[in-house]
Design a protein that fits this description.
With about 375 residues, the chain is mainly alpha-helical. The chain is about 80% helix and about 0% strand. The longest helix is centred in the middle third of the chain and has 49 residues, at about 135-185. The model is unreliable at about 115-135 (pLDDT under 50).
């Protein structure tokens, strides 16, 4: 009887957990306009809080003076990010039409029918249908050209939507700044003496600061390399490298492959002297930077690092991307890593943190 009752309570608990997770997910989705800037503000405060504490406790600044100084630094950083994102959106909008037309003309030239002597053997009349359509080169060319034409027509629209997204990002950063102001004003450096919460905040701050610095270094190196190669839109691809570096493995692959169409159009399709070596260099050199930083430097700097199993990372990307879109995909791993860091400080939740790290019960124990 006790075992059956235990099973019933376990089933009830699991059901309640599932229902609570669904309810929380709906709330996060419904309130995403406020929650995204709030989460960003929490991350920013975790990084800049030591400076505010130093100004207040060591240099004897008043609370509002220290908050004002730190907030000014946050505003300068936010303005720089906005300028970079606006520049990126404008460059994409200005280049989308021209590069799209070039790629379309190139693809059209490739798909022109070959002028070979003799007539091709084709079924006549009504027989030219079904499977024969799939084997007909003319039909394939026309269909592929239609698809390419639709994509090219969509590129300028997508670029304009990118400019609209930049406006949305500006409003998000504005709300984030307001949240940062109130979170900094509400801080009390004396309360950080509680060991458990001090350890959690220190771990979270260390992870966020290190990951941001590594991502910034990756973006700068990629930008320098592409600029040295004479690659157009080098700053745009550097911004992508910085943002996508927050997504482990998948992000670095995407950041490496994004410049490929532009590199081909610039160095091969429209160049007076086509150079495939430049295309290879555009892929290989940034890819080498991503590989060295992601597989060699980052593990050594961050130690255990994120401590998340790849399956957990994929689930986090899918979950947060579904809730908050591209911003959620970028924040997915930092949010999940912060949750694991916070939970790992409580012995009663060790089972959950071990599962997030990919350690099954009994594997790591004695």
């Amino acid at each position: 009887m006790p075992s059956r009752r235990r099973e019933q309570w376990t089933l009830i608990t699991a059901s309640l957990v599932v229902l609570a997770a669904i309810a929380i997910a709906f709330i996060l989705w419904f309130t995403r306009g406020v929650m995204i800037p709030f989460v960003l503000a929490v991350f920013v405060v975790a990084v800049v809080a030591p400076l505010a504490d130093f100004l207040e406790t060591r240099l004897r600044f008043s609370r509002w003076m220290s908050v004002t100084v730190v907030l000014l630094l946050v505003l300068i950083g936010t303005a720089a990010i906005l300028l970079i994102l606006t520049y990126t959106a404008q460059q994409i909008a200005n280049s989308a039409g021209s590069y799209g037309s070039q790629l379309y003309e190139l693809a059209t030239d490739w798909m022109k029918p070959e002028q070979t002597p003799g007539a091709s053997v084709e079924p006549a009349g009504d027989e030219k249908e079904g499977l024969w359509l799939l084997l007909d080169p003319e039909w394939l060319r026309s269909e592929v050209q239609k698809v390419l034409k639709n994509i090219i027509d969509w590129l300028p629209i997508a670029a304009q939507q990118g400019l609209g997204a930049a406006v949305g990002i500006a409003s998000t950063l504005f709300l984030m700044t307001i949240f940062v102001l109130f979170l900094l004003a509400a801080r009390d450096p004396q309360r950080l003496q509680v060991p458990e919460y001090a350890a959690i905040e220190t771990s979270i701050r260390g992870y966020l600061a290190t990951k941001t610095a590594i991502s910034a270094a990756t973006g700068i190196l990629v930008g320098v390399i592409l600029t040295a190669l004479g690659m157009e839109l080098a700053i745009v691809f550097a911004v992508f490298a910085f943002l996508l570096n927050f997504i482990p493995s998948v992000g670095s692959i995407i950041a490496t492959l994004i410049p490929l169409p532009i590199a081909y159009a610039q160095f091969v399709a429209t160049a007076e002297e086509p150079s495939w070596w430049m295309v290879v260099a555009v892929l290989a050199l940034p890819g080498a930077v991503q590989m060295v930083i992601g597989n060699v430097l980052e593990p050594r700097i961050m130690g255990e690092g994120v401590g998340l199993h790849p399956i957990v990372i994929l689930f986090a990307l899918a979950f947060w991307g579904l809730l908050w879109g591209p911003v959620g995909a970028i924040l997915a791993v930092p949010i999940t890593a912060v949750v694991r860091i916070a939970l790992s400080r409580f012995e009663s939740l060790k089972l959950i943190t071990d599962l997030m790290a990919g350690t099954l019960p009994g594997e790591g124990g004695e």
